[in-house]
Design a protein that fits this description.
heterodimer, A: about 230 residues, alpha/beta, seven-stranded parallel sheet, 8 helices, 7 strands, about 45% helix, B: about 140 residues, mainly alpha, 2 strands, elongated
Chain lengths: ~230, ~140
Amino acid sequence: MPIIAVSNPKGGAGKSTTTLLLATYLAEQGASVCVLDADPNQPILDWKSNGGSTTKLEVIGGVKESTIMEVLDGLNHQFVFIDLEGTASVLVSRSIAMADFVIVPLQASAVDVRQAAKAIRAIRDEEKVAQRSNPSRRIPYKVVMTRTPAPGAPVSSVQRQLESEITAAGINRFKTSLAERLAYKAVFVERLSLPELKDMKVGNLQAAQDNVHDLASELIETLQALN
Amino acid sequence: MQLFSMPGNSKHVACCYNVVVNSNAGEALMSKFGLDMEPDSTNTAKSDMASRLASFPPSSPKTAIDLVAVDAAGATHGFISREVGNSRKRRVVPSEPKRQLSIMMPVSKYDRFVAYADRHRLTYEETISRFMDRATD
């Protein structure tokens, strides 16, 4: 049921990584999951089409601003993720308007934060537009910190400052962050899901999987609370 | 035979065969000495997640949204069309002498103005004319 848009107008924030890790995890748990690859580079469609993963995840590419609504209306999955492009576009704003929940990946950098703020302002305005016809309509969102140091590693002062400013601004944030991990890079290099990397030397695979499990659990908990 | 003594009760003999079935492998893990075997937490977590996911029904068609309003709201934050093929190629045949108007404006307003013109397939002149026609003062 939930349509989950993953958005940050800043390229390289970790949108495709976040989308693919969550979507493949949920698919592995038995859910029916579809990813709309709305990134012009089509990274997830490439991953699915040119890789050897046996995931049941469905990926639809070539989504455009004129077709997004029709594509979404034709889907019948438990979870639909929209991996959005790293730019401020009509496709992004329409996807946000159609979403039940928005994930905003965010690295600890000033540029990421400013662009993420643009996305959050757009989310809030699209919510107001939607409420003109349906006062109960909400477009909730949460920021997820990406490329953070692995647990136990030093956290930069920039990240600490950013996290405290996010909290002070009343912006919702996932407690779980996605750490910078070799395994996540390997997912795209090898075009396999995390569990499918088990026979390769890709860093601490178990820790990487646990990280995704924690984030997915938090996402499910959040979505269940919205119903 | 006393295989494992419980504190405070020297006469107690624990039954020492605790059998825990590993649901993954189907193997029986036997402790001769009454040691507690922790249940496989990985399997518990997986079955918890599976049951949580089952509460999500497949997606249903969404109600129609007001695309003009959605696009206008997005345009105020710089979310404009980036798709190839949307370039403007409209020509207007002048019917009276013209003068040029150069305007500097914030990027967000510029993007919003251009997005409006593109959406309604108007030249900039036609867009300004429309706005003036609709202005009541």
